[in-house]
Design goal:
- The chain has 9 helices and no strands.
- Helix 1 runs antiparallel to helix 2, helix 1 packs across helix 6 and helix 4 packs antiparallel against helix 5.
- It is globular, with a radius of gyration of 18 Å.
- The protein is mainly α.
């Protein structure tokens, strides 16, 4: 099968992404090892989502195409705001905005199709997945529009933008691995709820760090150097 090397790359990228994600949150923000593991996470997640979109297109899996595109966008924009040294917006931000807008439009269309379909499905998926992806994309698009209107973000808002996008992309990937494919893991992990814990851990860490950012009066200096 011609896609086998790409499938192997997809699996390896997902494995590295998961390990790098857990490692990155374990190290002190702004430290050398946080930057190293953060870079590994970004590269692997971009590779994972891009290859996932291509494989999903070959299999006509609309939901995975939308999920992969949204994941790629979240990681890319989270990386972009961390690399930025000045408060400004540019062509990258305008171009990136097209992704969540497109996802919202497609999920709205397919969701309505599923809602009015006799089978309750559209392109093989019920309303739920479209509602979920569309809501996340709408939230992300609203954040982009607000940032562009303000001419950029700084301080705690900058850190929060980086955190929630990285962690939510991580959640989409972890759920795609642990929840969507539980048969790949030992039965003890399935029966003890470990797979659910691993899937939702990125969201728990996201909430924890967003609270720290909101109430901890953190500087954005560590973030400025986190991915360099």
């Amino acid at each position: 099968m011609s896609s086998s090397p790409l499938l192997l790359f997809h699996i390896c990228a997902g494995t590295v992404g998961m390990l790098a994600g857990f490692a990155a949150v374990s190290f002190q923000k702004g430290s050398r090892w946080h930057r190293v593991t953060g870079n590994a996470f970004v590269v692997s997640m971009l590779g994972l989502s891009a290859s996932g979109v291509y494989l999903a297109l070959l299999k006509h899996q609309t939901g995975n195409v939308l999920g992969g595109a949204l994941t790629f966008y979240l990681v890319a924009t989270a990386w972009g705001i961390a690399r930025r040294t000045e408060t400004h917006t540019g062509p990258f931000d305008w171009g990136a905005l097209l992704v969540p807008v497109a996802v919202v439009a497609v999920t709205l269309n397919y969701g309505l199709e599923a809602l009015h379909s006799p089978t309750g499905l559209s392109h093989g998926y019920p309303v739920g997945p479209y509602l979920f992806l569309g809501s996340v994309a709408l939230l992300a698009a609203a954040g982009d529009i607000r940032m562009i209107a303000l001419g950029g973000v700084s301080g705690a808002k900058r850190i929060a933008r980086h955190l929630w996008r990285m962690c939510f992309a991580w959640f989409i990937a972890s759920a795609s691995i642990f929840l969507a494919r539980p048969h790949l893991f030992p039965i003890v992990l399935r029966k003890t709820g470990t797979l659910y814990f691993l899937s939702f851990l990125p969201l728990l860490l996201m909430i924890f760090w967003l609270i720290r950012v909101r109430f901890g009066n953190r500087k954005d200096g560590p973030l400025r150097t986190a991915l360099r």
